[in-house]
């Protein structure tokens, strides 16, 4: 296992805030040249002063934009697919279009970036793909997260499929499955549910560790996986003990 990412290029989606941003900073600190992408240019601007981080506006729903980004950047060593969106609601409560949108953003976005990044990795004989799933997936049934859990389970399936197809070509593909992690969208979800403190305490209590995770803790697992040369096709829970 390598201790750092010196000389490596890492491409990250949804790097403007939350876990993606923390990972961009962690990878840069570990020596990587980071391509930090997000649909939100204002959020990316906070990263643009970092010498080893290049920011790039990218909508991962846009096939052509994803292909064009990789055509311009060339081969990357690490691809971290972090983009994802949480729809609330059970199967009866979700809104028309939620499941299609969730598949597009949470799953097909990863297919787009993987199809664009894989040929360059195969040419080099090595590459690392890290996909953002969740414990709310095939790992654990979580109430009111139907569209989200269906699509995050699909992320685990696509991770294992890519890993199996390309293991002999030097490609590793793993998934990260967090529990509840502090982020702007988590704040939005907590505020949307009414009494903020009550909702926050309920989110905390889901984790036996009694707290919400920090983005840098998830970034630490991404860094480990970027250098963990003897693991592929795995889904790593990082959830404060939620799935014990
Ligand atoms: P977040 O939800 O606060 O931020 C998401 C980022 O995605 C934003 O910067 C947004 O601009 C970007 N984005 C949205 N649509 C985009 C698009 N079409 N193209 C490119 N970028 C787009 O961040 P977070 O909560 O850290 O979540 C990041 C990932 O981690 C998601 O996949 C999420 O499902 C997963 N996750 C989060 C938690 C948690 O509790 N925060 C738990 C498990 C998994």
Number of beta strands: 7
Biggest sheet details? 7 strands, parallel
**Beta-strand content bin:** 15-25%
Euclidean distance between termini CA atoms? 27 Å
Spatial order of the strands in the main sheet? 3-2-1-4-5-6-7
Radius of gyration: 17 Å
Structure description:
The protein has helices at residues 18-29, 41-45, 63-73, 98-124, 146-166, 184-192, 196-205, 215-227; strands at residues 9-12, 33-38, 53-57, 78-81, 127-132, 171-178, 235-238. It is globular. Strands 3-2-1-4-5-6-7 form a 7-stranded parallel beta sheet, sandwiched between helices. The protein is α/β, with parallel strands linked by helices. Strand 2 (33-38), helix 2 (41-45) and strand 3 (53-57) form a beta-alpha-beta unit. The protein contains 8 helices and 7 strands. Helix 3 (63-73) packs parallel to helix 4 and helix 4 (98-124) packs parallel to helix 5. Bound molecules: nicotinamide-adenine-dinucleotide. Nicotinamide-adenine-dinucleotide is lined by residues 13-14, 16-20, 38-40, 43, 58-61, 82-84, 86, 105, 132, 134, 178, 180-181, 183-186, 215.
Please summarize what this structure is.
With 244 residues, this protein is of the alpha/beta class.
Keywords:
8 helices; 7 strands; binds nicotinamide-adenine-dinucleotide; 244 residues; globular; 44% helix; seven-stranded parallel β-sheet; alpha/beta
List the helices and strands and how they pair.
Layout (H helix, E strand, L loop, with lengths): L8 E4 L5 H12 L3 E6 L2 H5 L7 E5 L5 H11 L4 E4 L16 H27 L2 E6 L13 H21 L4 E8 L5 H9 L3 H10 L9 H13 L7 E4 L6
Parallel strand pairs: 1-2, 1-4, 2-3, 4-5, 5-6, 6-7
Helix pairs in contact: 1-8, 3-4, 4-5
Bound molecules: nicotinamide-adenine-dinucleotide.
């Amino acid at each position: 296992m390598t201790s750092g990412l010196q000389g490596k290029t890492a491409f990250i989606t949804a790097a403007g805030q939350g876990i993606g941003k923390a990972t961009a900073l962690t990878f840069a600190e570990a020596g990587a040249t980071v391509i930090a992408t997000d649909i939100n240019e204002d959020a990316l601007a906070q990263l643009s002063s970092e010498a080893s981080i290049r920011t790039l506006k990218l909508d991962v729903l846009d096939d052509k934009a994803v292909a064009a980004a990789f055509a311009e950047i060339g081969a990357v060593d690490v691809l971290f697919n972090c983009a994802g969106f949480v729809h609330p609601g059970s199967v009866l409560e979700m809104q028309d279009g939620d499941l299609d949108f969730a598949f597009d953003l949470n799953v097909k976005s990863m297919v787009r970036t993987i199809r664009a990044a894989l040929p360059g990795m195969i040419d080099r004989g090595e590459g690392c793909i890290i996909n953002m799933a969740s414990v709310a997936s095939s790992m654990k049934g979580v109430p009111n997260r139907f569209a989200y859990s269906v699509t995050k389970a699909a992320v685990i399936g696509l991770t294992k499929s890519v890993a199996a197809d390309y293991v002999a070509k030097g490609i590793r593909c793993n998934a990260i499955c967090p529990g509840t992690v502090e982020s702007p969208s988590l704040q939005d979800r907590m505020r949307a549910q009414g009494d903020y403190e009550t909702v926050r305490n309920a989110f905390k209590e889901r984790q036996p560790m009694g707290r919400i995770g920090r983005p840098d803790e998830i970034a630490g697992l991404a860094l480990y996986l970027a250098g963990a040369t003897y693991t592929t096709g795995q889904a790593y829970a990082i959830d404060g003990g939620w799935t014990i």
